[in-house]
Amino acid sequence: MTRKPVSKGTQLAVAASHGSLLRSYEDLFATVVGAHEAVAFAYARTALSSILTAIELGSGDEVILSPLTCKVVPLVLLSLGITPVYADISAETLNLDPGRLESAIRTATRALLFQHTYGNMAGAEEASEIAALKRVPLVEDCAQTLPFRAPSRRRGGRGIAAIYSNNLRKPLPAGSGGIAVTNDSNVAQRIREARDHYPHRRRLAEIRLRMEAWLEHHVLRPSLYWRFFEVNRKLSASYRVRALEAEIADEISRQALQLSDYQIREGLFWLSSVESLAAHRRLCCAEYRQALGDLNGLRLPPADVRQPLYYFPVLVERKEELLDAARTRQIEIIAWPMRAPIYPIVDIESLHQYGYRPGSCPVAEEVAAKLVGLPTHAKMAAEHRARVIDLVRSFAA
């Protein structure tokens, strides 16, 4: 049977429906985090790129960031001709060290990018003060942060703008997607204008996204984590270092898409569950801290107990042995980062491609060699947390 072409009137009606749904989602997200404006994208990396473009950063400019990050962050900068400048972190907060951050600012610095590692906001206030003193825009990377208003001041509210990520393994598992938030209406308008020119995800890619979401929500459980991880690591090119142009094309340029109706509905659904998601993550963190806080051979970076962390951080001397044991026993423990500071890179010498000079941030490199994340997501029931705690305790001393 020959399919009839869709009329122009139908196309306009569909577009209007999508626009109304999108505005509802963006308005709700902005309300949840306490921002004036929110602009949604298919991926958070595109939200970051659009923010940097909106504040007129480009070729020859420098942005200071943490080396303890995901490779898509420096790839966004490099795709715009921006030079990433890495400042070392604090071993206590896992975030940018304020002293090193201030000393890294120079004439070409055009922005500071502050990551809330594992969802920990410690150091953000100091970074904001430095940015204001030096008259440099602050952009907050809240990709590992659950979108909710903090008890004192909203996360992502200190700078010119912030990004959140809603990938399936992120704190708000809303079927991928990213959000740019800002209190500056002019910046929001420029971000939105850029977003509206992006294409929509193709039908096959949309089907794949829905399949991944179904597997994540209905099949994947803590005992299967390592099997899924190894399969994904073998199949996904994202885990390999390739030519810079190829990485930028695959990881940045081809991901510059608009949010689909499916992603919007997922986002609206999960936003309605933010409080329960936060409560569960706080419960996991409190239980891990109580069980592991008094052990020699482990270091638990301090964090505000009110923060629903993405992962609960533990620094362990025998990281590789612990991960091997977790893999063998099918216990979910997260290797973020792997061995090198920039995830998912293993060989530190490969970090040259992302503008990082090995040895330049010794604290981040030492942390990367020891840091593991204990999961706090909604599927981490009491029996799964007990298995994690027992295994980690066996590696103390």
Describe the protein:
By secondary structure, this protein is an alpha/beta fold. It has a 7-stranded mixed sheet, with helices on both faces. Strands 8-9-10 form a 3-stranded antiparallel sheet. The N terminus is likely disordered. It contains 14 helices and 10 strands. The chain starts with 7 loop residues before the first helix and ends with a helix.
In what range is the share of β-strand residues? 5-15%
Mean pLDDT across every amino acid position: 92
Topology as a string of helices (H) and strands (E): HEHEHEHEHEEEHHHHHHEEHHEH
From the structure provided, what is the oligomeric state, counting identical versus distinct chains? single chain
Count helical runs.
14
Largest sheet: 7 strands, mixed
Q: Name the poorly predicted regions.
A: 1-14
The overall strand count is 10
Q: Going across the biggest sheet, name each strand in turn.
A: 1-7-6-5-4-2-3
**Helical amount:** 40-55%
Helix/strand/pairing class, anyone?
A: alpha/beta
Key structural traits:
397 residues, alpha/beta, 3-stranded antiparallel beta sheet, 10 strands, 43% helix, globular, disordered N terminus
